[in-house]
Amino acid sequence: MTGWLDAVGGYRSRDEVDGHGFDFRPRWWQTRVPEPSWAAFLDDLREAERGRGYRHITRADMVAVATGPLPVPAVLVAAYAWGTGDGAFLAPRRARVFRDTPPGDLTHRLTGVRDLLATSDAAAAYASLLPGGANRIKHLGPSFFTKLLYALDPSRRALILDRFVAIALRDITGWPLSSTGPWTVDEYTRWLDWAHARAAKDGVHPDAVEMALFSYGKTL
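^ that's the sequence the OP posted. Answer follows.
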């Protein structure tokens, strides 16, 4: 292992990556989405050990929502619930993404993202969500829309890029990445190429590389 990987105790197993999750209360999101069907599934998630109305959402849960019969905005709800975890104070601000775009428009743009992932690639879907892109959604930045891409991509090429991953990449590779984004399509593609190559070299799944970088970035 290299120094950064040693610092986080190596890669996590497939089960550990899939089980990477956080506790939250469903009502934080259910009361802030315009369509009840988008967030009803949150009540069906496993009860958190802490009880008191908390549920537990994992990476595997996000992917299950994306590959199941639920409306595509439910995937964005899952991404926000997972990415926000138990930070209840963050939910009102982050939920603006559901408030400030009409439900029909939001569904149309998210469907466009899903279609691009199916017919083109992760880079095209990423580009469509950037400012000026065909599927741009107000308040939705790359730290969260790459979670959406990760869940929706049937090829499993898309990966999450957030500030902790960016900080880790900058430290490991020397790339001049912003810690907050938005990152260019070329920067996102370069990250995917690097992660997939590293995963192939080390005999792990690419999201195990991403999770290890996330953990390392939090130490910097």
